[in-house]
Amino acid sequence: xxxxxxxxxxxxxxxxxxxxxxxxxxxxxxxxxxxxxxxxxxxxxxxxxxxxxxxxxxxxxxxxxxxxxxxxxxxxxxxxxxxxxxxxxxxxxxxxxxxxxxxxxxxxxxxxxxxxxxxxxxxxxxxxxxx
Length: 131
Hints:
By secondary structure, this protein is of the alpha+beta class. The protein has one domain (3-130): Alpha-Beta Plaits. 27% of the residues lie in helices and 30% in strands. The chain is built from 3 helices and 6 strands, in the order E-H-E-H-E-E-H-E-E. It has helices spanning 25-35, 60-68, 91-105, and strands at 3-7, 43-52, 73-76, 81-88, 110-119, 129-130. Strands 1, 2, 3, 4, 5 and 6 form a 6-stranded antiparallel β-sheet that branches. The longest helix is centred in the last third of the chain and has 15 residues, at 91-105. The two termini are 18 Å apart.
């Protein structure tokens, strides 16, 4: 079974059974991942989705995002722009990246309020989790 979990923008304290995430949508996703056996000790591809007031957004936003996140894959999807980065999945990383993307895209009418990973809990490898 492949799960699709995602979250939105916060702090991951501790590891294993001592992880203490905030009581918000993103913390809920982290807890669901942990309960499903996800291990937070290796890098995964994390998709950050940017929504825009007007679609399509100004084409120059793609270059701005590529410059700000040179190791990321930036793509136009159906109705949003996706920025995919490889990183350890932590609450702090997700919160900071969403805030950074929102700040960068604000002048273009963009906001980043969702993220996700692909994660297959049966294979203990990335499959699909979104918020």
